[in-house]
Amino acid sequence: MRKTRQRLRTALFELLEQQSIESITTTKLCQVAGISRRTFYIHYGNVTEIFEDYENDMANLVAQRLTQTEGSAAKLLETFDQILMANFKGFKYLCLNEKHHQLMDRIQRMLFQTFSTSLFDAELTGTQQIILNTLTTGLINAYVYWFAHPDALSYDELIQVNQRLVETLMTEITR
User: Fold this and answer.
1) CA atoms of 72 and 119, how far apart (whole Å)
2) Cα dihedral 150, 54, 40, 26 sign
3) Cα 64 to the chain's mean position, in Å?
4) Does the predicted TM-score (pTM) go above 0.90?
5) What confidence tens digit (pLDDT) does each residue in 79-98 have?
6) Which PANTHER family match (predicted)?
């Protein structure tokens, strides 16, 4: 069952490189995945359910990995980046498709919560919360911008920008 779902996800992301999710038919998806339509309908009711399943898995993975990460803001950023890059195609589609901004908002809230609980012993003041929210929203938006403008900066430059963002705003929070 897990292999079939993975094949369907892989096929979906392959097709998403060429067309929108709304224009992908079950027949075409099954053809690319190498499975029958009957097998497809055992697992999903329609093509968008595959992506919804992926969204939930990614949200759970981010939450799990971030809560397991101990240490500094830089370490949390590194963990988040590793998750993103390991799931590059899916996150890119999420970032560039406005219908999936709910998941990105959910991930931003998870980042905020994880930074807040992992890095600070005391409850944050209102000012600190605003700065931390700016930080976590900025990190998400940096990836969204990079996915939308891949020629604007390299991946290494993106990492450097995010590291500077974390360092600068964490300094402001701890003032």
Assistant:
1) 7
2) negative
3) 13
4) no
5) 889 888 888 888 888 777 77
6) ACREF/ENVCD OPERON REPRESSOR-RELATED, ACREF_ENVCD OPERON REPRESSOR-RELATED
